[in-house]
TrEMBL record:
GO molecular function, one term: protein phosphatase regulator activity
Organism this protein belongs to: Pygocentrus nattereri (Red-bellied piranha)
Parts forming coiled coils: none
PANTHER family: SERINE/THREONINE-PROTEIN PHOSPHATASE PP2A 65 KDA REGULATORY SUBUNIT, WW-BINDING DOMAIN-CONTAINING PROTEIN-RELATED
Protein name per the record: Phosphatase 2A Regulatory Subunit A helical domain-containing protein
Length: 858
C-alpha cells in the first residue's frame, strides 16, 4: 500500500507525459529512454534523468537502471554529460531497494562493453566508476544482488574487460577477505566458487602470489563440506595454472586428503578431475602415487564414486601416453598421424608407418622400411649420419660404468663415447635394468662345478644361433619356445611361455617386422638363465626385459581394472553404461599402450563390438578410424576389418558412425582390400527408415572424398551409378550435394585421361538432366554446368562442344526457375571464360549469342 501511494503521489501527469504508464514487466520493445524527452517540467535531459533516477517511486528507479545503456548512448558525445551520467550511476548503486541494485548490476557488462568500444579512455572510466560497484556488490546483504554481481564479474573477466591491476588490487583482496575462517558461511561458499572460476582467467604468477595458499587452506576446511566440494571440483584448474612444481609440492597433499574425505560427493569430484591433475604431474608421481590413489577410488565403498572413477579411468590412462613410444601424434587439426621424417604426401593411400620405426628420437627410418633397434638407438654413428640430426639420442648413453645388461661387448665402447643427455622413452617409462654382469661372469668363470658346467653347455647347444643383430623372427621365437618345453613345471616358465607365445603371434602378424627394444641374443641368454634356476639370477622377472611383450607403459592394476569394464557384473554393481564409457575411451588407451601392446586390448575390443547395447557399438563405430591409425595397416587388416564389416550390417545408428568416417578408414587399407568395399557402397542406399535422408546426404559427402582412393575405372563402374541415384533423391539437400559429386566424378575422369568414359558420362548427364521432363532435372543441369566451369573439371573446348549448346537451349525454358539458374551459370561462370572458347566454336554458334542478351537482364 505504501508503494502504491508513492506511485500515485509522484506526479501522475508526468508519467502520462513520458509514457511510464505503458511500462510493465514486458517492456523490452519500448524505448526505455522516453523519459528523457521534453515534457511539461521544462527540465534538461540530465535534469529529468536525475529526477527519475532518485524518484521516490521504486518503479521509476528500476526503469532508469534498466535503461542506463541507452542513456549512455544519448550522452556519449559530450564528455561532461558522460561524466555526469557515470556519477549518477555510482549514486544509484547505493539505492536502498535491492531490485534497483540488481537491475543496475545486470546492465554493467553491457555498459562496460559499450565503453570499451566507444570510449578512448575506457580503462580509466571503467576502473573508476564500475569496478568498485561490482566489488561492493560481492558483499551485498541481498542474495539476488550478490548472485547478479558474481555473474557480471565472470562475464567481465571472460571478455577481458578488467585489467590486471584491478584484479590484483580490488577483486582478489575482497575474495581473500570473504574466504577468511571467520567469514560468513554463505559468503565463503560463494567466494570460493568465484575464486575457482577466476583462477582460469589469471596468469600463473598472480595465482601463486595471491590465491594458491588460500586455496590450500580451503581444501582443508573442516567445518564446511560445501567449500571442500567446490575445491575438489575445481582442483584440476588450479593444477593447470600453477604447473608441475607447485602441484606436487603444495596441492598433491591436499588432493590426497580430498580423495579420502568422509563425504562421497567430494571423493566423486576428485575422481572426475583426476585426468587434469595427472597431466600436471611428473611420470614418476603419476605412476607411484596417483595410480594407487586412483585404484582406491575405483574400489570405493560408494557406488557413485566407483562410477565416476570408472568413467575417468580411460582418460587417466591416456595421461601415460608418450608420442615417442606410441608412434603417433596429434596434428593441429586434432587428427592422429604417424610420426615420420618424410612428408605426408601419401597419407591418402592409407599406409600408416610403423610406430616402432619412429618411436625413438633420432630415428631416420623412412616409411615402409623397418629399422633395427640396434641401428636406430644403439649405434650413434649411424644416427649422426642423418643430415637432419646433429646429435644422437641419449638412449645410447651408458648408465653404468660396467655396461648394461644385454649390451654386446662390441657396442659398449660406442655407448661410453656418447655424452648427450636427451629424453629416451625406454629409460623414461621403465625402471632401470638390474646389472647382473658380475653374476654372468661368475657363471662363465673357471671355478664352477664340472657337472653344472656340463649342464650349461648342454642347454646352450640347444639354443639357436642368435648372435647376429637385428629383430627376432618367428622361427627364432619358435625355437626358444621348444627349449622351454622341458621346464613347464615351473610357474615362472609357464608365464614366460605365455609371453613368448604372444610375441610369436605378433611377430607373425607383423611379417617379422616387430622390433624389440632389446637385442634378441641378450633376451635369450637371460631367459635361459632364469629358467635354469641359477640362484644368482632366478629372481629376475622376464617382464623387466620384455617391454615389447608385456606392457609396462601403465601400472598393470589400471589396465586390469579397465579390462574388467566389460564384465557384466560391473554393469550391475557400478553403472549400466560402463561398457559405453569403456568403448569411448578405448582409442585413448590403445594410443597410450601403443600398437605393440594391442594384444592386451584385442579381446576387450571384440567384446565391445558384439555388445548387446547399440550405443556401445555406435561409440566404437565412430572411433574405429582413429584406432586404425594407432594400430597401423597390418593390425587393422587383421583385427579391425572384420569388426568394420560387422558394423556395415548393423543398425542405422551404428552404420552412421562408420559412414561419417568411411574415407578415413578406407584410406588406411591396402588397395586390394579397399576395392572389396566397392561392392558394399550400394548398401548404404538402403536404410531402416526411408525418411532418414541425412544418411544419404552423408553418403554423398563421403563419396566425394572416396573418389581419390579408386581408379577412374572403379569410379565409373561403381560410384557413378550411386551418384546418379542420389541425384534423383526426394530430398532437395541430398540432390544438391549429389550434383557436386557428379562434378567430382567428371573431373576424375578427365584428369585421368579417360576421354571416352568422360564423353559417355556427359551424354548420360544430358539425357538424364537436360532433357528431363521435370523442371528440377533441367535446373540441376544448369547447376552442374556452372560447377564444371568453376572447378575447371574439363577443358573449355570440350565444354563448349558437348555441354554449352545444351545449356543455351535451356535459356528459353518455360519454367522461370530454370532460366534464372541458367542465367547465373552463364553470367558468373561461362562468360568469364568465354575467351578460352575456340574460334571455330564461336563462329559456329555465333547466333546463340543472342541468348545472352535475353538472359542477362534476368
Amino acid at each position: 500500500p505504501s508503494g502504491l501511494s508513492l506511485y500515485f503521489e509522484d506526479g501522475h501527469d508526468d508519467l502520462d507525459d513520458f509514457g511510464f504508464d505503458d511500462y510493465g514487466s514486458e517492456c523490452d520493445g519500448i524505448r526505455i529512454t522516453a523519459f528523457l524527452d521534453a515534457g511539461q517540467d521544462n527540465l534538461t535531459p540530465l535534469g529529468r534523468l536525475e529526477k527519475y533516477a532518485f524518484s521516490e517511486n521504486v518503479f521509476n528507479r528500476q526503469i532508469v537502471a534498466r535503461g542506463l545503456l541507452d542513456v549512455l548512448r544519448e550522452f556519449s558525445d559530450n564528455e561532461n554529460d558522460f561524466i555526469s551520467v557515470m556519477e549518477t550511476v555510482v549514486r544509484m548503486s547505493e539505492d536502498a531497494e535491492p531490485t534497483v541494485r540488481a537491475e543496475l548490476m545486470e546492465q554493467v557488462p553491457n555498459i562496460a562493453m559499450f565503453l570499451h568500444e566507444n570510449r578512448p579512455n575506457f580503462p580509466a572510466a571503467f576502473s573508476r566508476y564500475l569496478v568498485p560497484i561490482v566489488v561492493r556488490y560481492l558483499t551485498d546483504p541481498n542474495n539476488q544482488v550478490r548472485k547478479t554481481s558474481q555473474a557480471a564479474l565472470l562475464v567481465l573477466l571472460e571478455q577481458g574487460l578488467i585489467c590486471k591491476a584491478d584484479m590484483e588490487g580490488k577483486i582478489c583482496p575482497v575474495l581473500l577477505e570473504l574466504t577468511e575462517p571467520s567469514s560468513d558461511d554463505d559468503y565463503k561458499i560463494e567466494a570460493v566458487a568465484i575464486m575457482c572460476k577466476l583462477v582460469t582467467m589469471l596468469n600463473k604468477d598472480t595465482v601463486e602470489l595471491l590465491l594458491l595458499l588460500r586455496f590450500c587452506e580451503l581444501c582443508s576446511d573442516a567445518r564446511l563440506f560445501q567449500v571442500r566440494k567446490v575445491c575438489a571440483a575445481n582442483f584440476g584448474e588450479f593444477c593447470s595454472i600453477v604447473g608441475q612444481d607447485a602441484t606436487e609440492k603444495l596441492l598433491m597433499p591436499k588432493f590426497f586428503d580430498l580423495c579420502s574425505d568422509s563425504l562421497w560427493g567430494i571423493r566423486k569430484a576428485c575422481a572426475e578431475c583426476f585426468m587434469v591433475v595427472s597431466n600436471c604431474t611428473s611420470p614418476e608421481v603419476r605412476r607411484t602415487k596417483l595410480s594407487p590413489l586412483f585404484i582406491n577410488l575405483i574400489s570405493d565403498q560408494s557406488r557413485w564414486v566407483r562410477q565416476a572413477a570408472f568413467q575417468s579411468l580411460g582418460r587417466f590412462i591416456s595421461t601415460f601416453a608418450n608420442p615417442s613410444s606410441t608412434g603417433v601424434r596429434f596434428q593441429e587439426d586434432e587428427t592422429l598421424h604417424g610420426i615420420t621424417k618424410s612428408t605426408e604426401k601419401n597419407e591418402h593411400k592409407g599406409s600408416c608407418s610403423d610406430a616402432s620405426s619412429d618411436r625413438f628420437p633420432g630415428s631416420s627410418a623412412s616409411p615402409g622400411k623397418s629399422k633395427k633397434f640396434s641401428d636406430t638407438v644403439i649405434k650413434p654413428s649411424q644416427a649422426s649420419e642423418d643430415p637432419n640430426h646433429s646429435r644422437v639420442p641419449s638412449s645410447v648413453k651408458s648408465h653404468t660404468t660396467d655396461g648394461k645388461l644385454g649390451q654386446p661387448d662390441s657396442l659398449t665402447t660406442t655407448q661410453d663415447q656418447q655424452t648427450g643427455d636427451f629424453f629416451d622413452s625406454f629409460h623414461y617409462w621403465r625402471p632401470l635394468l638390474p646389472d647382473i654382469s658380475q653374476d654372468l661372469e661368475l657363471l662363465q668363470g673357471e671355478g664352477k662345478d664340472e657337472v653344472q658346467r656340463q649342464e650349461m653347455v648342454k642347454e646352450e647347444e640347444t639354443v639357436p644361433d642368435l648372435d647376429s643383430e637385428g629383430p627376432a623372427t618367428s622361427s627364432q621365437i619358435q625355437k626358444v619356445l621348444e627349449c622351454l618345453q622341458p621346464h613347464l613345471d615351473d610357474p615362472d616358465v609357464q608365464a614366460q611361455v605365455q609371453v613368448l607365445s604372444a610375441a610369436l603371434k605378433a611377430a607373425q602378424l607383423e611379417n617379422s617386422r616387430f622390433l624389440y627394444k632389446i637385442s634378441f641374443n641378450t633376451f635369450i641368454k637371460v631367459t635361459l638363465i632364469s629358467v635354469l634356476h641359477i640362484p644368482h639370477v632366478s629372481h629376475f622377472s622376464l617382464s623387466s626385459f620384455l617391454p615389447s611383450f608385456l606392457q609396462n607403459v601403465i601400472p598393470q592394476q589400471l589396465l586390469d581394472q579397465y579390462l574388467s569394464m566389460t564384465d557384466p557384473v560391473r554393469a550391475q554393481t557400478v553403472d549400466t553404461e560402463i561398457a559405453k564409457h569403456c568403448a569411448f575411451s578405448l582409442p585413448g588407451v590403445a594410443l597410450t599402450l601403443g600398437r605393440q601392446n594391442w594384444h592386451c586390448l584385442k579381446d576387450t575390443y571384440e567384446t565391445l563390438a558384439t555388445d548387446v547395447q547399440w550405443k556401445v557399438r555406435r561409440t566404437l563405430a565412430f572411433s574405429i578410424h582413429e584406432l586404425a591409425v594407432i594400430l597401423g595397416d597390418q593390425l587393422t587388416a587383421a583385427d579391425l576389418v572384420p569388426i568394420f564389416n560387422g558394423f556395415l550390417k548393423d543398425l542405422d545408428e551404428v552404420r552412421i558412425g562408420v559412414l561419417k568416417h568411411l574415407y578415413d578408414f578406407l584410406k588406411l587399407l591396402h588397395v586390394e582390400k579397399r576395392r572389396e568395399y566397392l561392392y558394399q557402397l550400394q548398401e548404404f542406399m538402403v536404410t531402416d527408415n526411408s525418411r532418414n535422408w541425412r544418411f544419404r546426404y552423408e553418403l554423398a559427402e563421403q563419396l566425394i572424398l572416396i573418389i581419390d582412393l579408386y581408379s577412374h575405372y572403379d569410379v565409373y563402374d561403381y560410384l557413378r551409378q550411386i551418384a546418379l541415384s542420389l541425384c534423383s533423391d526426394k530430398v532437395s539437400d541430398v540432390r544438391w550435394i549429389s550434383y557436386k559429386l557428379v562434378v567430382e566424378i567428371l573431373q576424375k575422369l578427365y584428369s585421368c585421361g579417360a576421354h571416352d568414359l568422360s564423353l559417355n558420362f556427359i551424354n548420360e548427364l544430358v539425357v538424364r538432366f537436360c532433357h528431363c521432363p521435370k523442371w528440377v532435372g533441367r535446373q540441376a543441369f544448369a547447376f552442374i554446368c556452372q560447377a564444371i566451369v568453376e572447378e575447371d573439371c574439363m577443358p573449355m573446348d570440350q565444354f563448349a562442344q558437348h555441354l554449352l549448346p545444351c545449356l543455351l537451349s535451356l535459356s528459353s525454358d518455360p519454367v522461370p526457375n530454370v532460366r534464372v539458374l541458367v542465367a547465373k551459370a552463364l553470367r558468373h561462370s561461362v562468360l568469364e571464360k568465354r575467351k578460352t572458347f575456340s574460334v571455330h566454336f564461336e563462329a559456329k554458334y555465333s547466333p546463340k549469342k543472342t541468348h545472352f542478351s535475353i538472359i542477362l537482364p534476368l
